[in-house]
Fold each of these.
Amino acid sequence: MSGTMYRGGWGDAPLSDEAQRTVSHLEALEQQEAHSARIADELYAAHNGVPDIEQRRAVWEENNNRLAVRMAAEEGVSALEVHRGNYGHTPAEFVALAGARQDHEDRMRAVRNQQAFQRWQRDNAGYEQEPTRAEQIAESREAAKRAMVDKYRPEIEARRADRERLAEIRQVVGEVVEPVVGGLLREIDRTR
């Protein structure tokens, strides 16, 4: 970008000194970034012995395939099954795993948010805030529920006691009547 003349303001007026310094600084950063990228590519190529990006991609894929075969062999899967595509994740499994990973990340984010909120509450414990309208409504509903339960508590407890007595009666009837009726039915079957 060097050698480019930037214009600003009205018509052909040159850029201010500050703007020209900013442009020069950005150009220097771009050149430094391009130089760093070239050095990184050269180091990678020298390290792996592969200068071309397409060749590097092919080497990378080959290394991944070798790793998959080795992992499959460790799990007892033959290399033939790996090359046929019978090893690894199906697209549905990958989607399920990715979804599970995202769910886990969401849960972890929620935990961190909750911990941050609890720290905030601890730090601001002396400061009491007036309850919001929603909190007041929720509190009044809870109070109404408690009042309703207290009002009908004797009836609820009486019904509970009745159910318990009925269960006891059914158990006694089952223990006493069942053998007698069963014996009578067997006697009737024999006389037929």
Amino acid sequence: MGKKLRLFLILLAWSGAIGGMIDGLITLYAAWEIAKDANIGIGVTVETHISMHLPILYFLKEVGYALAPNALIDWIFALPALLYFPFRVLVNLLFGWIMLKWANRLEVAEGDLAA
């Protein structure tokens, strides 16, 4: 059981790391769009950034509505993209670090290593 739980925690950590990298790329893309287009202000919202520049991800708003209160999703999508996405990077890094720390604490029995 210890080996499976450890593997699960490591997978969670990696999913957080990958999510953080994607959020970092979205942050860089938002910054690039703001820098190159004078019509886009520094306070561009998550809603505007995703709908205008990353429409393939816009379905995530509907997923959010299905999973959380609508007011929360509306609030998140109204946040400035250059604040929201870097915050997500930090949260993902923290999440991944905690998962790896927990995985490291698990002692894998010798019998589990052979399996």
